[in-house]
Structure prediction request, 438 residues.
Amino acid sequence: MSAVIPIQRDAADLGCADAPVLRERGQREVFCGLTGIIWMHRKIQDAFFLVVGSRTCAHLIQSAAGVMIFAEPRFGTAIIDERDLAGIADANDELDRVVRQLLSRRPDIKMLFLVGSCPSEVIKLDLSRAAARLSREYLNQVHILNYSGSGIETTFTQGEDACLASLVPELPQSTSDTPSLLVVGCLPDVVEDQFARLFTAMGLEGVQFFPPRSSRSLPSVGKHTRFLLAQPFLGETARALSERGATHLVAPFPFGVEGTTEWLRTAAHSAGISPERFAQATHVSRERAQRALERHRERLQGKRIFFFPDSQLEIPLARFLSRELGMHLTEVGTPYLHREHLKHELALLPSGTVLSEGQDVDKQLDRCRAQAPDLVVCGLGLANPLEAEGLTTKWAIELVFSPVHGYEQSADLAELFARPLLRREKIAPSTSQEAVCS
Ligand code: SF4
Prediction:
């Protein structure tokens, strides 16, 4: 059995803990917070997400999720049309009518989120009042909540943050004096099960996950609750949990072997689990994951990568790619940089890494072209033009849609970055062949 290796770094080397950050507030190219519905509707299986928006919002969600033909969908759009916009129809009455119709047809829905959009904000439709009004009508039958996924207010992963923050006041109060652990952030069920097994093997019983798979099993929270964020974009949710008395365990995020080990170790340490027990519980998964990473290191080592700001996963992913796969970071952009939540991650980035927060897309494109990186992580809107310019790209949204947390997924995460480079290598000879032929 091998010992758990603590994070290797010089005591004097603070990485990017105090590094300057280029702050930009120009035009940005990011999906709106409605996108979060795509992964959240799969998680809370008796919830329904009703977007109160336009046909554009409906198209965004349907094309991002694919149209479900055989299943009863768990999301939909109450379309705000010209009559609502012109004030001819009372949008509140219309919304109540749509909700009643939906809930009478779908008794399986136990939690309903009214999701605000740009159009609902423009006509100043007060969804919190609508949720309160409808909650009275459906008391003890359906939880009705609201949050905003509007592109005016949110980037795509902030939709999950806004959704979970709206759910925190609904969590039952814990009356237990025994410390408990809550893992916060949407994880695919398979990943949640892997973590649950590791916690059990360490001797940590009764770990709860938020959001839960069913709205009927909301975790309790109180002053003896400690919580670990599984996602770096949950600032509002963390604040709401802290206001309920819970304690945030700040840790690196569980991406890659190192991040997963440190995340789990933080949980184990807070529960007083011995280093030996921790090592015993994790070493098999850790070593297997390290071996699985080796085949990707060969392809990724020394390659230069540039991150446009999209998902707020950028800093933990950059740490993983740099420390475990030997990639060189040319610029790491993130929509928002929460220094406290990311303090361990920043300290693990190589000193001198260029960090940027927010976006002024034209300036950032210029910096990207000047760097000529081997791989660019960006949104769908930038990927095609950059590919046409000869740059190799990775869609940021795929990193959020795919299971990427934990030991078992470390190699899959590395592969998401290796695949575009392989594709480019395969295309390159045929392109030059065509050029020769023509
Ligand atoms: S919420 Fe706004 S940004 Fe998002 S799809 Fe609707 S109109 Fe577009």
